[in-house]
Amino acid sequence: MSEYVPAIGLEVHVQLKTKSKMFCSCSTDFGAPPNTNICPVCTGQPGVLPTKNKKAIELAIRAGLVLNCKIQKYSLFARKNYFYPDLPKAYQISQYELPISKEGFLMVGDKKIRIIRAHLEEDAGKLLHYIGSTPVDGSLVDLNRCGIPLLEIVSYPDIDSPQMAFDYLKTLRRLLRYAGISDCDMEKGSLRCDCNVSVRKIGEKLGVKTEIKNMNSFKEVKDALTYEIERQTKVLKEGGKIFQETRLWNPKQGKTFAMRRKEEAHDYRYFPDPDLRPIFLSEEMISEQKKQIPELPADRKKRYTEMGLSEYQADVIIDEKELADYFEKVAENSNPCEAANIIITHLLRQINEKNIPYSQIPLNPQNLSELVNLKTDGKITPQIIKRIFPEMFEKNENPKKLLENIEVVSDEGEIKKIVMDAIQKNAQAWNDYKAGNEKASGRIIGFVMKQTEGSADPVKVKKILEELKNENFDS
Amino acid sequence: MDKKVIDKKDVEYLGNLARISLSEDEKEKLYADLEKILGYVSQLEKVDTENVEPTYHVLPVKNVFRKDKVKESFSKEEILKNATERKGDFFKVPKII
């Protein structure tokens, strides 16, 4: 029996980086007290008129450009009608037949994921069912998010594994962050993702899909897809049928559950919003946005690998624009490969341990390039770097100054004594090394470094070891 | 006479979507109105519009944009006054999950 393969399409909503809402001048500030950023327009009072936020339109154009979409010179807002307490107007202003951009693609590694469309819409409010952990005897509505500009990016079902969905999301987030279009912060609700997934036997046409919602992280997207693909495959193998339905991911149980199928839930009766005139985009507006696009992650990665960085190093460095900018400042005055190496091994470790945002790295790039230069000039050992780095990072200290306090053992006579002692205490390793196992020397060098707290010059240690080997020194 | 463009079930369906309850009399009246409106529309549909651009908006005004500038929002109290029920600074609605 042939195996089942999945087809996954993602619908990603990102919040466009504007100060004010899509159709009114209320603030988009995250974390404001409930119902403080609301006005007659975004709460749907009778007789109000929406007005389009220019910045939101510009960012939508820019997003269309970086997603290789065709930008539509003429697009239209439509009303999507449904009743829900988070939507006071009982319709969401969205785009339907004529979205602002369509037919693009995103390269995820070597794989091209096609984009169906990217359209503008407004967000709904937030519903609360608990205060703290106490359930409320009703549902509470906060309309601060209502009317916040969103861009919905819809992909074709070109994604063929949960891992690829994860990579697509990471690539998309990185791209939109670089281009200043969205913060894409899932915790703050500025990125949300729904998945459409179906399975089919290889060579057959697409199967019946389900839509999964309620994932709170990229990892949950991956987990939910993995679960859902297994579920669908099992149903089909047992001769069952998949129903087109919406399913909710339950992260605690690690399963998806069918939502109650509401009657007529999908009859949105879209129609052009008579309150909003169409958007006509001029060549100038589009070319202005082209100019606003900075060097994008894929181009940076290419440039960094040309500088000599490995694929892995380049991937880590470009992950966040701020880190890449920092790297470039360090690499201006030092060897790029060694700089990347120290950033990845030491700097990122400090940043992760102390949970510091990339924009607030205390160590300035000049001090770090000095450290890199000391390393490439052979004046400092990896052990010493490890020792001084935390202090250097925290206090933004010049490495030379910190080295003054560290005694480096470079007297060969003294090192030889320590090495001989190390050999005696690691007789097996020494015999292995003498027998031709180069790697065994690592254990002896490690022992020396431990004895000297990393202050012995490793080049000299290695040299002495070789000399002793040639003398056939006996432990 | 053209074929029927709407039947009574459609009226009930629309009422349901709009969350309004309709009496039998109201259904009859709305059915008659809708039938007339849609009859008129089906007459319009006969016109050849092959080479005519659709009119999406009646005013010839283009691109009225607003600058992305925050203005002070409305008084929260004024807006919450319109709520049927409130709890603290939230609107309160019947439990939905």
Keywords:
heterodimer, A: 475 residues, alpha+beta, Arc Repressor Mutant, subunit A, three-stranded antiparallel β-sheet, 15 helices, B: 97 residues, mainly alpha, Histone, subunit A, two-stranded antiparallel sheet
Descriptive account of the structure:
The complex is a heterodimer of chains A (475) and B (97). Chain A is 39% helix and 20% strand. Chain A is α+β, with helices and mostly antiparallel strands and 475 residues long. Chain A has three domains: 282 residues, no CATH class; 109 residues, no CATH class; 59 residues, Arc Repressor Mutant, subunit A. A nine-stranded mixed β-sheet of chain A has the order 3-7-8-11-1-12-13-14-15. A three-stranded antiparallel β-sheet of chain A has the order 6-5-16, with no helix packed on it. In chain A, a hairpin with an 8-residue loop joins β12 and β13. In chain A, α2 packs antiparallel against α3 and α5 runs antiparallel to α6. The longest helix of chain A is centred in the middle third of the chain and has 20 residues. Chain B has 97 residues and is mostly helical. Chain B has a domain of 39 residues: Histone, subunit A (Orthogonal Bundle), CATH 1.10.20. Chain B contains three helices and three strands. A two-stranded antiparallel ribbon of chain B has the order 2-3. In chain B, β2 and β3 form a beta hairpin. The longest helix of chain B has 21 residues. The radius of gyration of chain B is 22 Å and the shape is flat. The mean pLDDT of chain B is 86. Classes of the chains: A alpha+beta (475), B mainly alpha (97). The interface between A and B is large, with 49 and 36 residues. β2 of chain A pairs parallel with β1 of chain B.
